[in-house]
Give the backbone structure.
Amino acid sequence: MNQALAQFQALAQWLGDALAPGEDFSLGYAAEQSDFVRFNQARVRQAGQVRQASLELQLIQGGRHAEQQLTLSGVLAEDRRRLAEALSQLRAILPLLPPDPYLQFNREPWQSHSLQLEALPDCAQVVEQVAREAAGLDLVGFYAAGSISRGFASSSGAFGWHQASSFNLDWSLFHGNGQAVKAQYAGQHWQAEAFATRLAEAREQLAYLGLPARSLAPGDYRAYLAPAALQEVLELLGWGGFSAQALAEKDSPLQRLHSGEARLSPLLHLQEQVTGSLLPGFSSEGYPRRDLQLIRAGQPGEQLVSARSAAEYGLPANGASPWEAPAALVMAGGELAQAQVLERLDRGLYIGNLWYLNYSDRPAARITGMTRFASFWVEDGRIQAPLASMRFDDSLYRLLGSRLEALTRERELSLATGTYQQRHNGSTLLPGALLDGLTLTL
């Protein structure tokens, strides 16, 4: 048996035996074994490894609950001692706390087990290929690879275990003038040819950055949003767009869609797709996750419901995170071939990346942001010049609705690049989007 799994099971068993009458617990487990490499000018600047594991213990009694996180040593006797100390401290704190009216402890004894431990290349092989393929380029990037483990156990008999290996190479190619092309290659199966192709595409775009930049007057322009740019739009939409709490409190940017006052494009299909993703099949709150159809042919679908929202609004919890944002977002592709994007765009904006996005009018789903990294002016289906950084301000009901002309057949997988405290396991799988209008404001 997997050693980490065996130790987690042993700790959960000990905790169950140590409970006093009337007490319940939930126990979350998080661990990783990761290699990290930082690149500068296509050479290794920093390399290292991280091995860490932690527990999140929640003690519940009489409607009160308290939590504590503890780092694990990997030595069972020592970790059992740390867990006993945490349990003792929570018992002392619990009587001092008021009851939580929205505490919802799941008493279903569900079981979940998932192993996606694919073989990854040796870190030295990746470094060698990056250095060879990017020779002569100013490549600045970050490589992270290895396994991520998540576990959950509770006094109700629920138990979940999830382990998945993955890699993520996030990089930029810098031109001598300071402009850059940003790209990512991520997944569970490293393919040397796929990385070489992705790098070649970035190198081709880099050549255009030496041309004089084009500034445009404010107005509407045809535009193509590459998958990375579309990801920024959808991540902003995830801030309350599918949240049961935000919708119940009338604070969702998609409130008008759910009330029938506005519509999105019938081309649009969005899903929280846990199946096949790196996301565990259970939440940190102890609920099984399942695939959710968030938008179907432009029409509103299911909501992301956390345990607290379920208790407050009388809804069935579906394993959403406490912040009720998508973590394994998938958009269906369309019929536009990637090779035909410039031809179909004809004249307009090719936008590789966006940044600084925010809502300019949240109830109206209006967003604003800036173009960035490898965005170009296109004429007659050919790139003519890099685009100077421009601000846009437009409604999601236009960008993903009336102005959405086509989606690419090919889709791009992006894995979360966050490493704050630990590597994250969120993902998106998105096509590119051709728009017959995007409003630039300055």
Notes: The first strand starts at residue 24 and ends at 40. The chain has two domains: 3-204, 219-440. Residues 219-440 form one domain. The chain has ten helices and 20 strands.
